[in-house]
Amino acid sequence: MAPAQMRLMVFMRYAALIAIAVTLLAPIYWLLMSSFRPAGDIFRFAGQFSIDTLVPTTLTLENYRAIWDGPFPRAVFNSLFVSLVTVALGLLVNSLAGFAFAVFEFPFKRTLFVAVLLSFMMPFESIVIPLYVLMGWLGWVNTYAALIMPDVASGLIVFLFRQFFAAVPKEIYEAARIDGASWWQIYRRMTMPLSGPTIATASLMMFIHQWDAFFWPLVAASTQDLIVVQVAIARNMTLEQSNWGSLFASASSAVLVALVPFLALQRYYIRVVTLNAER
Amino acid sequence: MKTRWWVPFAFLSPMLIGLALFRFAPIFIAVIGSFFGQTIRGETIFKGLANYVDLFEDQSFWASIRTTLVFNLIINPFQVVCAMCLALLARRPTRFVDVFRASFLMPMTTSIALTSVLWGILLDPSMGPVNGFLRWAGVPAQGFFRSGEQAIATLILVCTWKGAGYWMVFLLAGLLAIPKELDEAASIDGASPWQRFRYVTLPMMRRPLAFVLVADTAINFLLFAPVYVITHGGPNGATHLLMFEAYQSAFAFLNHGRSLAISTIILAIVLVIAAFELRLFRHKEGEP
Hints:
The complex is a heterodimer.
Chain A lengths: L2 H33 L15 H4 L7 H8 L2 H32 L5 H13 L6 H11 L5 H5 L6 H12 L3 H9 L4 H9 L4 H17 L2 H6 L8 H10 L5 H21 L1 H13 L1
Helix pairs in contact in A: 1-14, 3-14, 4-8, 4-11, 5-8, 8-11, 11-14, 13-14
Chain B lengths: L6 H27 L2 E3 L5 E3 L3 H7 L2 H31 L7 H9 L6 H11 L6 H8 L14 H26 L3 H9 L4 H12 L1 H15 L4 H7 L10 H11 L3 H30 L3
């Protein structure tokens, strides 16, 4: 290719990359930026596009102070509690299972592994209504258990741990067995301490999964006491409220809670996701 | 030291109990429950296939099936094409490519509920900044979610905003796995960029593309949050997707038999999609 043509190609490629990135990021920018505006300013410049639409004239924290006094802190507590308990239980339950699939030979291993894969390829939404019926039988409707327990065992996280554990040479385990270590000791003292990055990624995935959950909490537990962040925000939106300042501040907080750890662990995350696609 | 037979199952059992109870038992509850119904006095009675017969005679059920099919026939190929374009643009390790890749992924971190709230506001015909921008650019204001003709297209664009970057990651991994020599050889033989894409890249990407298409379908088939938050199925049923129909049957009309019959139909479709996904996945993954 001629150099001029080459330069044109490079220019066009960057132009496309920048245009797409700006389009994708603009909505998030507008949300975050607006949350720092006085409530009355949020829509003042929206209808008439100008520089004021994009750059705030006055910055304030009043919207954030306002949500602090309302029901929103309760929703934040509920979401954090549900997410953190799920992560704690999920790490144990799923890493144990991943260990079993990576290390042992046992009857029905293939069948059980297919069931694990199937469980995360089947979208959760498809079982929401019968699961709600089950919660009724268990007496768990409108309890924390309904929000937490169904998401503890996760096929995807089992798979993640299995992939990592399977890469450890089997001879190490054999040596430990000859020295008289039990399998529990091997899991507890050798395997888990070596799995830092996998544990971090799995924790992040489970945390964000629960933090972002909407459909299930809406159905299973959405009383004032148990309401989670996503449902609280969506409900404010559907009520056609005029309290825009609070809506923007609460939505921005919820976005940032998922965004910040994602950016910190982005490289890991991409590696893990593509590992699923590639191996 | 010999491992006793029950040891693997001791490690597996907490997870197996969890999946059995909260993933697989609901499938049976849906199927069995779909044969039952409730009388006006609240007694549970066996109804045989009556829930299904009612469903198949119901125009609003067929309308939501039609809407769901049309939505999926458009959105899934569209998202795959968008994700592929992003992956091709972000493929070469040029300057700032990490920044671009990360910014393509950012919408993915916005939950589906927040995506719905955010775009519901952005695209509000009277207050939203998007119409403000269009007017500034000399384009007349649009109805978006409030317009019967535009609602589905708007929904597709909003979901693509959130999803394209996520699927790009899978395709990017596929692209980066293609040996560089292939492309270089074609280049030396005088192939144009289009020919290299058409006869080198595309055939190598068949499997990642198929995987993304199927996995994306599994997710979009049961789209719920934007319909619940923004449109409530409207205007005039334009966005009345199947999952919203099932939700309304269960929680607005309290007709459990009907909602479980819809759940059973949804599960049957989803299991077929998941079986395809599993085959594509295991082919790459190898046997456990």
